[in-house]
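Session log. Operator J.P. requested a structure for one protein chain; no other inputs attached. Running the standard single-chain path with token output.
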Amino acid sequence: MPYDDSGWRNFGAYGANRSPENVRGGRALGRAMEEALSRQIREGGIRSPVTTPRGLKARLNYLNSDAGRQALRTAGVTVQDRALNNWFAHTQTPRRANLDLIDTAYWNLRAHNVLRNLGAFKQHLNNRGRGTPLEIHPINQDLVDDHARRRNLMGDQGIRSLPAVRYIWDDAVDAMAAGDAEKLEEIWDDVISDLDSDWGAYTYVSYVGLGA
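Structure written below.
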């Protein structure tokens, strides 16, 4: 067997490391949180396209600050300050060539603001104490030596669903933001300890998804 109940101690001895998607669970959890955070940034942003009057006005209102002006300059906007003031006052419409730059500046500033204060993301994952569902996909065994493959982990039967993971999210988000791989592994060990006696098979996984 390539693993035991205490974890995948000799991971790769039978080819599990040949599939690039197979990673330690803490790393997969970090990726899942990054994906969820990216969704929060997108889905909580302005929906109307920048090419519509509503979408353009909303973006310029968001960018009407020193940080917004800097974001516009960083995105490549080169008009004079007087023109910027007219944009913010909605008395002058930017040329079409600048609309994509305004859109880029908006999303960059929104991402920066969300990442600077991750409290809302923690609240989102904690979900008022109800926690967040977690889906765990076992390692891809396609390239594992045939004699070492675990049949019970192949296909959909190996996917494990945890309907409500609680109490880990504040620490997990902090670890993700700090790039603390060791802490994420500790948290992952806590997560899979709620599985049955086969929990060691999920020390390495191919994918972790969050229902958030």
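Operator note: The helical segments are 25-43, 53-63, 66-75, 81-89, 96-116, 119-126, 169-178, 181-192.
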